[in-house]
Amino acid sequence: MTIELHKEKSTGSVRTVTIGATKDQGGTRARTLTLGGETALPFLAFEGAFPNRPALALEIRDRKPDDWSPLLYQAWGEAMQDPADWARAAEAAGADLIYLVLSPTQAGGSQNVAAASRAVVRKVLQATGLPLAVVGPGQADLDNELIVAVAEEAKGERLLIGICEDKNYRTIVAAALANDHLVQSKTPMDVNLSKQLVILIHDMGLPLERIVMDPTTGALGYGIEYGYSVMERLRLAALQGDSMTQQPMLVNPGEEGWKVKESKVGEGVPAAWGDWSRRALNWEALTAATLLHSGADLLVLRHPETLRRLRLVIDDLVAA
Q: pTM score > 0.85 for this model?
């Protein structure tokens, strides 16, 4: 007996967004990265089209971070001493995009300044041909100062810049408009807040094709269920035709996965927790793999081994 599967037919689709610009497009990137375009829920290819696979980014910093796990220091080694070397190592590890996070302070402890951020971004652009995202340290006034300078320095490269939040989006959006970049919009885990920020950014004149939505998520065991639910509802709304929820979604399982106790602590924990390295890598990888199924179009990771694992997961899901 033949069983006919019920198929959902969507009236909407995820908007297509392209990061980076090649020489012919006014930039210097060797290739661009296109996100979105789906017309069905994740990996349900029998119900719709998936023209662009989920993409994987690796996070680097403008200087070696002071608070990362020793396991990450081991993974990247001397490359962490120079952002250009780190970017080259991330490209060699298979990243689709470099996600550069600017620090609040310079190596000597003084506050970061626009000139230093300009120099770092220029070095990274020269070191790799991958598309680039650049975000500030998460301090409103300093973010504005640094990201405006970065946007000017990389004019025409179509960077993904941010982070645009409810109380701190106007200056960054204005910089994106003036210098032909895209923005990352980020809100707490809430469908309506995610949609509202996209509307506010678009009302400033930035095309929807230049907005990537970050709905925020938690790590495995730390709120991932709620974050998953929010992302799933955003994707369902997009497929049902709600235009302001149709942005590709970015999530950061690297940041979330490496700040939980299970990843950070190697000693003084129950023996049942098992080997530290295996546990930490599994925490990032399982967080990321879960978010793939909630509709993530771009995942930002920290460990190169996690990227390798996620690439295999995506390959298998696409093949299936």
A: yes
